[in-house]
């Protein structure tokens, strides 16, 4: 169902403009990893999933999106799992760590929902990657954020950065701090690259 839905979205979104994907070779070819993408609307979630096909992303999504029967079915079909962002518990890390241990891909939007690029990154993406000993792949998106933008045929672009790994010569705590700094810096650099294209 996921593959069918993603390919259908690819066709529908393609009617509003062709997606340009840069540096896709930075995507790891094996093993689990975390994708950390910039986030300013709902369209970037869809384009991110389409851009990485045939790889399937397991999205971390706020629990409010699972409250109705239809939305819960839709989220589960799209391999999303709920997170209580107000009161995060052990399952916040447990579920993505299990998925990563199964060599699956977890998608997280570290800047939160519909925020500007200046918003400080949330620690979740780096913490999960660090404790799971998997790389985190920084991704930046530029383009339409909502249906109105789609109608304007704004050009969608996605760029993948090089994977960031937990430094082996440092303690986990120190390594996660380094990863946090690298992710923050790389996302800003990738956004600048897209703006200059």
Descriptive notes:
The protein is an alpha/beta fold and 197 residues long. It has one domain (2-54, 94-195): Glycerol-3-phosphate (1)-acyltransferase (3-Layer(aba) Sandwich), CATH 3.40.1130.10. It has 7 helices and 7 strands, in the order H-E-E-H-E-H-E-H-E-H-E-H-E-H. The chain has helices at 2-14, 43-51, 69-77, 91-101, 124-132, 147-151, 172-195, and strands spanning 20-22, 33-37, 57-62, 81-83, 105-108, 136-142, 157-160. It has a 7-stranded mixed β-sheet with strand order 1-7-6-2-5-3-4, with helices on both faces. Helix 3 (69-77) links the parallel strand 3 (57-62) and strand 4. The N and C termini lie far apart (35 Å). The model is unreliable at 113-120 (pLDDT under 50).
